[in-house]
Specification:
This protein is of the alpha+beta class. It is built from 2 helices and 5 strands.
Length: 164
């Protein structure tokens, strides 16, 4: 299976935040942002893997600024790391006011999700590797490998603690 560059699966999805998306404080609900993040990452994972892929984990998500009604939310995602059957997808969410063209987008959230490609029986299936083309893609892959090592070490430590 031939490795693919991160640009192969890169996707951007957009949402115009309306009244149906707000929480009790009048800001866009974090869950709405998370839904956009998961949808965008899922599209990337399915593009890269060439078929169905499911969310296995959300490694971390940081909310950096509030989103208001009327903001245009844009989530952009790409594969940062790919293994045999799983991949990490990084997502960046930015917002800008709908009525102010030329306004510099505000970085409002970032997240890292792990997806597993599945076959028709729901079993993990092999996916293409990742071949970074640019220095920032190499950096993202290296950082994803660090996050993966931490996830695996945390799981091992928790499992060992439970078996005592």
């Amino acid at each position: 299976m031939e490795s693919l560059p991160p640009s192969y699966g890169r996707v951007s999805l957009t949402l115009l935040a309306g009244q149906a998306h707000v929480n009790l404080l009048g800001n866009v609900h974090g869950g709405e942002v998370m839904r956009l993040v998961d949808s965008t990452a899922g599209a990337v994972a399915q593009r890269h893997s060439g078929g169905p892929a499911v969310t296995a984990a959300m490694d971390e998500m940081a909310f950096l600024a509030p989103v208001h009604v009327g903001d245009i939310l844009r989530a952009t995602a790409q594969v940062n790391w790919a293994g045999r059957t799983s991949m990490e997808v990084g997502v960046r969410v930015e917002s800008e006011p709908w009525n102010q063209a030329g306004t510099e987008p505000v970085h409002v959230a970032s997240a890292y999700l792990v997806f597993v490609a599945i076959d028709a029986d729901g079993k993990p299936r092999q996916i293409p590797g990742l071949e970074p083309q640019e220095a920032k893609e190499v950096r993202r892959m290296r950082e994803a490998e660090i996050r993966r090592a931490h996830r695996l070490a945390r799981k091992t430590e928790i499992d060992e603690g439970r078996s005592r």
